[in-house]
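Regression test case RT-17, inverse folding.

Input:
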């Protein structure tokens, strides 16, 4: 008979800004492929509670402590490989300039996703093996976008 394990998403992926982040899909795919796992999905955040990773598994094939370790190890590996930065910036005067900046950032080797919002926010997901946080700050500086600490 299948059993269910639930873990709050921030406990598994603490650096991920929200449940729409690609790391969540990576986590679900990796955990879902494990022997004994029947289904891995997300229960959306609601009423101020965080999103929850829900894993249905066969306890005859994988026990709860081992599955929990697999989930936490996978989340840790994803957080080590993929960085997430959100910076506050001075207001960008026009939305086209912000979109152009986001497009340029997405072309940088190692940048997976980038959003530049005219209302003072830059969000970037990146592969730490290809580019570091300091390199991203340098790219933004070259584009004329100053980020606050």
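Golden output:
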């Amino acid at each position: 008979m299948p059993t269910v394990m639930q873990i709050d998403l921030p406990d598994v992926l603490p650096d991920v800004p929200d449940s729409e982040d690609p790391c969540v899909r990576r986590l679900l795919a990796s955990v879902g492929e494990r022997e004994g796992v029947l289904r891995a999905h997300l229960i959306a955040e609601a009423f101020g509670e965080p999103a929850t990773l829900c894993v249905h598994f066969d306890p005859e094939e994988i026990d709860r402590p081992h599955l929990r370790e697999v989930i936490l190890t996978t989340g840790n590996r994803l957080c080590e490989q993929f960085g997430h930065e959100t910076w506050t910036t001075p207001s960008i005067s026009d939305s086209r300039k912000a979109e152009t900046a986001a497009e340029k950032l997405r072309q940088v080797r190692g940048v997976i996703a980038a959003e530049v919002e005219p209302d003072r926010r830059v969000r970037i997901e990146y592969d730490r093996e290809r580019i570091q946080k300091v390199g991203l700050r340098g790219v933004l500086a070259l584009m004329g976008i100053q980020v606050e600490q």
